[in-house]
């Protein structure tokens, strides 16, 4: 029975890494679509988000059933707690990639990315993809050096996010109101994506060390674009 139990715990951890891989694919495609205006690629991201949601749901169900049936303690309990909390952040990361894709669809055939900010958003997209790939490596290996790398990259994304706000709110910005809305929403989505990656990284640190001191609450509910996108 213990062997089956530990196989289940390993399966839960592998599922988290699989979800993270899907999230990394989603943000890579979403940021490429945002940069190029590729609406077909954006539609692919939107359609594939359901797959992420389904995998999160089944992983949570397995974790909850294991918690109820096995009553784990110590490190085994940390695996279950980490899985339940990390899966929520991973699901939100998938949603944020979808939101970026929805911006592309809403502005098609025009590009959602405002002129003068393309290099900034290209870099933000590259960093988000880097964060997502690093997070997958962290979940696969539990090498805490990856957690440090995620936090450092998040700092770079925060700086770019602040620069977008400074630019669109400055007197010299000539974009129309829709361009300002798109820029602020897209920048926020990129920034929150990395924030959730940091949250997952902290949970993995907890799993490895049992120390909650570096753990914070999940990032607050992200801003969601409520405008019609069809």
What keywords describe this structure?
disordered C terminus, 230 residues, mainly alpha, single chain
3D architecture notes:
The protein has about 230 residues and is mainly alpha-helical. The chain has six helices and no strands. It has helices at about 1-35, 40-70, 75-105, 120-140, 145-170, 175-210. Helix 1 (about 1-35) runs antiparallel to helix 2, helix 2 (about 40-70) runs antiparallel to helix 3 and helix 3 (about 75-105) runs antiparallel to helix 6. It is elongated and about 65 Å long. The termini are far apart. Residues about 215-230 have low confidence and may be disordered.
Low-confidence stretches: 217-230
Q: How widely separated are the two ends?
A: 51 Å
Global shape: elongated
Radius of gyration: 19 Å
Beta fraction: under 5%
Which structural class matches the secondary elements? Answer: mainly alpha
Instruction: Count the E strands.
Output: 0
Give the topology.
Blueprint: H1 2-36, H2 39-70, H3 74-107, H4 118-141, H5 145-168, H6 177-209
Helix pairs in contact: 1-2, 1-3, 1-4, 2-3, 3-6, 4-5, 4-6, 5-6
């Amino acid at each position: 029975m213990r062997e089956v139990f530990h196989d289940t715990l390993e399966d839960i951890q592998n599922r988290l890494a699989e979800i993270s891989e899907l999230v990394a694919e989603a943000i890579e495609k979403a940021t490429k679509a945002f940069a190029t205006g590729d609406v077909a690629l954006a539609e692919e991201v939107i359609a594939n988000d359901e797959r992420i949601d389904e995998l999160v749901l089944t992983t949570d169900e397995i974790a909850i059933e294991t918690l109820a049936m096995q009553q784990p303690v110590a490190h085994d309990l940390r695996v279950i707690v980490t899985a339940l909390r990390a899966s929520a952040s991973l699901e939100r990361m998938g949603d944020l990639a979808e939101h970026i894709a929805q911006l592309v669809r809403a502005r098609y055939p025009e590009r959602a990315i405002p002129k003068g900010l393309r290099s900034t958003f290209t870099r933000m997209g590259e960093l988000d993809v880097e964060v997502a790939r690093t997070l997958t490596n962290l979940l696969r290996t539990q090498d805490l050096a990856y957690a440090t790398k995620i936090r450092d990259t998040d700092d770079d994304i925060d700086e770019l996010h602040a620069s977008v706000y400074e630019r669109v709110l400055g007197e010299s910005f000539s974009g129309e109101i829709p361009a300002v809305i798109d820029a602020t929403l897209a920048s926020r989505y990129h920034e929150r994506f990395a924030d959730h990656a940091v949250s997952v990284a902290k949970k993995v640190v907890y799993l490895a060390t049992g120390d909650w001191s570096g753990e914070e609450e999940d990032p607050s509910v992200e801003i969601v674009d409520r405008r019609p996108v069809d």
